[in-house]
Design a protein that fits this description.
The chain is an alpha/beta fold. The chain has one domain (15-300): TIM Barrel, CATH 3.20.20. The protein has helices at residues 29-32, 41-53, 71-81, 106-118, 143-159, 173-182, 201-210, 224-239, 269-279, 284-300, and strands at residues 2-5, 8-11, 17-22, 26-27, 37-38, 56-61, 84-89, 130-135, 163-166, 190-192, 213-216, 246-248. The strands form three sheets. The protein has an eight-stranded parallel β-sheet. It has a two-stranded antiparallel sheet with strand order 1-2. A two-stranded antiparallel ribbon has the order 4-5. A hairpin with a 2-residue loop joins strand 1 (2-5) and strand 2 (8-11). Helix 2 (41-53) crosses helix 3 and helix 4 (106-118) packs across helix 5.
Length: 302
């Protein structure tokens, strides 16, 4: 079983330590002004080399349509760093959805997603390896977000790629899973993102109980309280038999997230946070399950 990266297919067994939800280049200026623009290629290479030096092998770039995705730049960075970079596709969320989406049928939107997967994004020949991140901005899905989700589901059925979602601040991962279920998507092929932005362990358990992957992907060590919460949430999922449904990442998407500018960078999870898990009683095998074994299963369904 292989995973499509920006430089071509890679066998799932060769992915190694994987960050399942990050961004290398992105434009969030409309919300974050200058802090929301990652467009410095030299800085990206330097930051990603720190992740490689920490043992990182693969990074999933969830920059979807509407966020200034740059396939050729991703391919260039992958060549220079040696990283396996898996590129996302599909449409992000309100207010980033393009106006033309309102004039397109669900199947027409699905066609654009499939083209990115089978032919390459934006005419570059660089192919996507995951659908997403697609999401919703509130505790519900808008009409356009629903169209995006239904199109992603249909693209999933045509290509077999996993769907990864943006479900921040509200427990909107449940209605997202409900909508995808209407489109006959197996929840085991869905990653519900930003679960750690919803401080409700029962929500995490419900997502896992549905069969989806619980992505705690804003693990950035901003405060001791937040770090302790995330360790506790991983423990809670493990104690309920869901360790193999847990994914960890940092969601680097702002300049202030980069280590050179005072943030955690891309290596925080496999270094500092992994040690916090071990200090809390998790075995090395548990940490390997989360960082090495589970991401390929999430991406391939195997």
């Amino acid at each position: 079983m292989t995973v499509m990266t920006v430089l071509g297919p890679v066998h799932a067994d060769d992915l190694g330590t994987t960050l399942p939800h990050e961004h290398v280049f992105i434009d969030l200026v409309r919300e974050y002004r200058g802090d929301g623009l990652l467009n410095d290629r030299a800085l990206a290479v330097a930051e990603l080399r720190e992740y490689v030096d920490a043992g990182g092998r693969t990074l999933v770039d969830c920059t979807s349509i509407g966020l200034a995705r740059d396939p050729l730049a991703l391919a260039s960075v992958a060549r220079e760093t040696g990283l396996h970079i898996v590129m996302g596709c599909g449409y992000y969320r309100d207010p980033y959805l393009p106006p033309e989406l309102d004039t397109m049928s669900v199947d027409a939107v699905a066609d654009t997603i499939v083209r990115d997967i089978e032919e390459g994004a934006d005419g570059t020949g660089v192919r996507a390896g995951v659908i997403g991140e697609i999401g919703s901005d509130r505790g519900h899905l808008s009409a356009l977000e629903e169209r995006s989700f239904r199109a992603a589901a249909r693209a999933h059925h045509r290509t077999g790629l996993t769907i990864t979602t943006h479900a921040a601040r509200w427990p909107v991962g449940i209605p997202q899973l409900d909508l995808l279920a209407e489109e006959r998507v197996d929840p085991r092929r869905v990653v519900v993102g930003h679960c750690d932005m919803v401080p409700d362990p029962s929500y995490h358990l419900e997502v896992a109980g549905r069969g989806a992957f619980v992505e705690l992907d804003t693990v950035q060590g901003e405060s001791e309280y937040e770090t302790q919460c995330r360790v506790a949430w991983v423990r809670n999922l493990a104690e309920h038999g869901f360790l193999d449904r847990v994914l960890l990442s940092q969601d680097v998407c702002l300049r202030s997230n980069l280590r050179a500018l005072g943030g955690p960078g891309y290596a925080y999870v496999p270094t500092v946070f992994a040690e916090r898990l071990r200090a809390a009683g998790f075995a090395d095998s548990d940490v390997r399950t989360i960082l090495v074994d589970t991401p390929p299963r999430a991406l391939t369904g195997e």
